[in-house]
């Protein structure tokens, strides 16, 4: 259960790309709290300086402002690194439909640069962010590794390509890679602002401001919303996984299924707001339902998430109430 008991060799150095973002900054924080060293590489394109500033006093933390599209930057950032947690990428299905070429360069070439830099620098483990979007239009639930459908967006394609590149790096160069197929992650520091914000922080912020959120579609879509603590656990356990478990991707979820309209109602109740939502059109490239089978990660990584949706949501609400 959890990750706080995990031990790494003394002075281990973790490189977190995208460490100024939501998931990356939470990984940085967890690793620093465990007493290990962190180098954060981020170009601050969607991340925030505040997610860097909060660690600058810690002597175990180092920030490198740089772009993973640049191989030289990746090579320098990987020097002396034991573990890479590659989170840097642009998210959002709708935005990827507007900017397919940028997504290809940023999310595929960027990760390829990181794989190459990790290989040349003798990194022990390369753990990287993939996404549940790689399941595309596969209708069967729960989503299971090895049972993927047709891709529905440029974003999903970038993540599938990353998985294939990582597999080749394990096969041909012996670099231990582990793909984390995140399912709708939520929690502290997730950005509530902008057109491409995730629903939970966006709804919380709007409700706290007495604004009326819009639900795309009928609200009957479901997702396996996954609390950030479970994501940290999966990443750190992957850093300790066997060579046999490398070259593969794993569902990182809780294994539950929450309907958007139910989440909305839970939030209005928890925040004491009597606000009806707007309903908008379905979003292009979105799937109706998503729910993960997490047995592969349990078996091969020892992933054993201890935050169910309700426990995670309570913590997230408290954090947003104090920090927005
Ligand atoms: N949040 C989710 O629910 C979710 C779901 C599936 C997959 N993911 C993946 O997890 C990872 C982290 O997502 P997040 O939600 O924390 O997003 P985020 O936008 O908060 O963080 C991404 C970080 O990467 C940085 N970045 C982007 N391109 C970069 C580049 N070329 N060079 C250096 N830094 C760059 C950004 O500045 C940002 O700080 C991403 O790879 C994303 O695709 C997230």
Written account of the structure:
By secondary structure, the protein is of the alpha/beta class. It has a domain at 13-186 and 228-255 and 293-306: Rossmann fold, CATH 3.40.50.720. The protein contains eleven helices and 13 strands. The strands form four sheets. The protein has a seven-stranded parallel β-sheet, with helices on both faces. The chain is globular and about 55 Å long. The model has no long low-confidence stretch (mean pLDDT 97). Nicotinamide-adenine-dinucleotide binds next to helix 1, helix 5 and strand 5.
Topology diagram in text:
Elements: E1 13-17, H1 22-33, E2 37-42, H2 50-53, E3 61-65, H3 71-77, E4 83-86, H4 93-98, H5 100-120, E5 125-131, H6 154-173, E6 176-182, E7 185-186, H7 199-208, E8 214-216, E9 222-223, E10 226-227, H8 228-238, E11 248-252, E12 258-259, H9 260-271, E13 278-280, H10 295-301, H11 309-323
Parallel strand pairs: 1-2, 1-4, 2-3, 4-5, 5-6, 6-11, 7-10, 8-13
Antiparallel strand pairs: 9-12
Helix pairs in contact: 1-8, 3-5, 5-6, 7-9, 7-11
Bound molecules: nicotinamide-adenine-dinucleotide (NAD).
């Amino acid at each position: 259960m959890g990750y706080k008991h995990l031990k790494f060799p003394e002075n281990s150095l973790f490189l977190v790309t995208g460490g100024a973002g939501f998931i990356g900054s939470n990984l940085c924080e967890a690793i620093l709290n465990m007493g290990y060293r962190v180098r954060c590489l981020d170009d601050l394109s969607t991340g925030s300086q505040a997610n860097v500033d909060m660690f600058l006093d810690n002597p175990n933390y180092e920030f490198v402002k740089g772009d993973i599209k640049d191989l030289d930057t990746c090579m320098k950032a990987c020097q002396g690194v034991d573990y890479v947690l590659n989170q840097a990428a642009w998210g959002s299905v709708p935005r990827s439909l507007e900017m397919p070429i940028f997504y290809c360069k940023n999310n595929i070439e960027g990760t390829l640069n990181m794989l190459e830099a990790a290989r040349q620098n003798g990194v022990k483990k390369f753990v990287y962010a993939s996404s549940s979007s790689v399941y595309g239009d596969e209708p069967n639930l729960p989503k299971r590794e090895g049972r993927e459908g047709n891709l529905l967006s440029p974003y999903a394609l970038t993540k599938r390509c990353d998985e294939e590149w990582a597999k080749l790096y394990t096969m041909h160069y012996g670099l231990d890679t582990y793909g984390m197929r995140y399912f709708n992650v939520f929690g502290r520091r997730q950005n509530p602002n902008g057109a491409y914000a995730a629903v939970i922080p966006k709804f919380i912020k709007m409700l706290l401001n007495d604004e009326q959120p819009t639900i795309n579609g009928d609200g009957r879509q479901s997702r396996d919303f996954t609390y950030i603590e479970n994501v940290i656990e999966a990443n750190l356990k992957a850093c300790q996984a066997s060579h046999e478990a490398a070259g593969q991707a794993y569902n990182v979820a809780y294994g539950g299924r929450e309907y958007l309209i139910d989440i909305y109602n839970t939030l209005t109740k928890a925040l004491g707001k009597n606000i009806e939502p707007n309903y908008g059109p379905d979003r292009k490239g979105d799937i109706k339902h998503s729910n993960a089978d997490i047995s592969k990660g349990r078996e091969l990584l020892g992933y054993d998430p201890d935050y169910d949706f309700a426990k995670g949501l309570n913590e997230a609400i408290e954090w947003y109430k104090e920090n927005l």
